[in-house]
Amino acid sequence: MKVDLPTPVSTEEMKIDVREIEAILQAPPMNLPPWPDAQITLKDGRILYIRSIQESDIKPALGYLEKVMKVEKDFYDIVGVRVYGEILALIRHRLKDPFTLMGLVDGEWLGFANGRVWDENVAVSLHTLTFSRKARLGWPMYYAKTYYAMEMLKVKEWWSTFESYNGWRMAGLSMAQPTKPYPQMQHELGGAKIFYLDQENWQKRVKNYIKEVIGQDLSFDVSPEVKKANAVFRVPETIDL
Ligand SMILES: CC(C)(COP(=O)(O)OP(=O)(O)OC[C@H]1O[C@@H](n2cnc3c(N)ncnc32)[C@H](O)[C@@H]1OP(=O)(O)O)[C@@H](O)C(=O)NCCC(=O)NCCS
């Protein structure tokens, strides 16, 4: 867009270093606490190791998600393509204050959960994914990011939405999450309803939920054997969803 100048100027063109544009487009990051690695035993006896995403995971994870986004079942396609964008955004710095958890079993990437911080009062849940069906693996993944938001960031509210019936049952129904007024308030994922937890609901009722549904709590005391078994990250060889 060009507008006539209100005064004579010495030079009519300026050279811009795009790093200066980047500084404007990219908000300064908040100083988020690190996620302490955790483990939990699934109902089928496998040990799920939950750690933060590492830069070296990104390329293989994106390659695997290219296949997941083609699965036209149980909303894997829409969630797969959105998660692809959110993981790519980590290296392109186009997601404000994200936190991204990877669930591994013996090094194999079988679970995913992420969110981001809106401000010091609100964190937003983005997606949960499992690549190992019927193991209730999604549940501890969603719980882990909720725990991070409510216990470690200590936000007042955690805002979720659900693209799928399985997602809603896992966290909307089983955590009895109420909704914000709609359409006055909309979740950033497609303008859907905002389901939320506040500290009162979390502390009085929901914090114990993982013990009820999985039979045990997350352990932040990860054994050396579990760390060793998950030292090398790999994506599943096949798509069996
Ligand atoms: C939502 C999600 C994370 C839930 O995790 P989960 O409960 O561990 O995952 P599953 O899909 O394996 O299981 C959901 C239910 O469907 C059942 N199920 C899964 N595959 C099945 C199949 N082929 N036949 C019959 N039942 C099946 C499971 O047994 C489970 O029921 P149960 O808990 O009563 O046993 C997971 O379904 C997922 O990744 N979905 C795609 C992405 C998505 O929708 N993410 C959430 C966005 S809000």
Summary, kept brief:
The chain is α+β, with helices and mostly antiparallel strands and 241 residues long. Helix content is 34%, strand content 19%.
What does this structure look like?
34% of the residues lie in helices and 19% in strands. The chain has 241 residues and is α+β, with helices and mostly antiparallel strands. It has a single domain, classed as Aminopeptidase (3-Layer(aba) Sandwich). The chain has a seven-stranded mixed beta sheet with strand order 1-2-3-4-5-6-7, with helices on both faces. α4 links the parallel β5 and β6 (157-160). α2 (55-68) packs antiparallel against α3. The longest helix is centred in the middle third of the chain and has 17 residues, at 76-92. The radius of gyration is 20 Å and the shape is globular. Bound molecules: coenzyme A (COA). Residues 74-76, 79, 127-130, 133-139, 162-164, 166-167, 170 line the site of coenzyme A. Coenzyme A is lined by residues 74-76, 79, 127-130, 133-139, 162-164, 166-167, 170.
